[in-house]
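Hi support team,

I submitted a single chain yesterday and got back a structure, but I'm not sure I'm reading the token output correctly. Could someone confirm the output below corresponds to the sequence I sent? I've pasted both exactly as they appear in my results page.

Thanks,
R.
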Amino acid sequence: MSKPNQLAIVVPCYNEEEMLPITAEALRVSLDDLAKKGLISADSFVLFVDDGSKDKTWELISAEHEKTPTSIYGLKLAGNVGHQFALTAGLLTAMECSDVTISIDADLQDDIHVFDEMLQKYQDGCDIVYGVRNSRKKDTFFKRSTAQGFYKLMNSMGVKTVYNHADFRLMSKRALKAFSEYPERNLFLRGIVPLIGFKTECVYYERLERQAGESKYPLKKMLALAWEGITSFSIKPISFITGFGIMIVILSFLALIYVLVSYFFGIFGDTQPGWSSLMLSIWFIGGVQLISVGLIGQYIGKIYLEVKQRPRYHIETFLSAKKEDSADEV
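Hi R., thanks for writing in. Yes, this is the structure output for that exact sequence:
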């Protein structure tokens, strides 16, 4: 029988002082249970990533590490870099000291009881296992409609995503090494991970209610993430502008014919100087031009961020079972 694999559970955190003790205890118990079942080795651990929190999140992570240094690790980033970069920092750090990772948010709305199924699929040869929600019955009508619309829009744009999957997933060491070769500064992990390939499977679960604290992903951030995903993986918005421009040119020619016929033959009635439609068309064309320039500017801005090749994050402190490290950048 092969030796159980070392598991790292990566948990990005931002201002989670209310939720963190609950999460730490639940994941600690889960590790013990998985180890007793022989699914993971006894030296498996939870890696909390503090994304520049302004509350006592890091103090609580340090306290949990002091309590059980072999099962609770901590990674403190030098500043707030955002959820996707914080998660990336945790995954790439865990890759160096574990065989397999599971990423999960600190709110524990993703069901930790499906860890068993994920690990079983990993042992069956899967390198990536997605945690997928069974349904969105608990969401409001607005959130459910916008989420469904987002996934449909992404698919129509040619972006490969897993429906109803966020960032709850298992990844093998091999998959993480492949992921490390994607150095993008415009990160959308839900789009990048499916590009890696390898054998994948899904496990399904019912999303739970947050037990404490508030959501760190309000509507504004969700819309920003959606826009990041669309513009990072597809140029179809620019193609759409091109098609829209062609359509406006065709309509302009039709309008020209209308004007000429009205002027020379009076078929459509008397022409009056200063048509209100002229002003409306000017405003319309002007608006389209501004939107087009803005959209193209978004893509140019992304190129600007990529070519500078600045570090995506800096690691201030790393608390592990062996030692405390500091100063690193990626």
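A quick pointer for reading it: The chain has two domains: 7-213+311-329, 236-308. Let us know if anything else looks off.

Best,
Support desk
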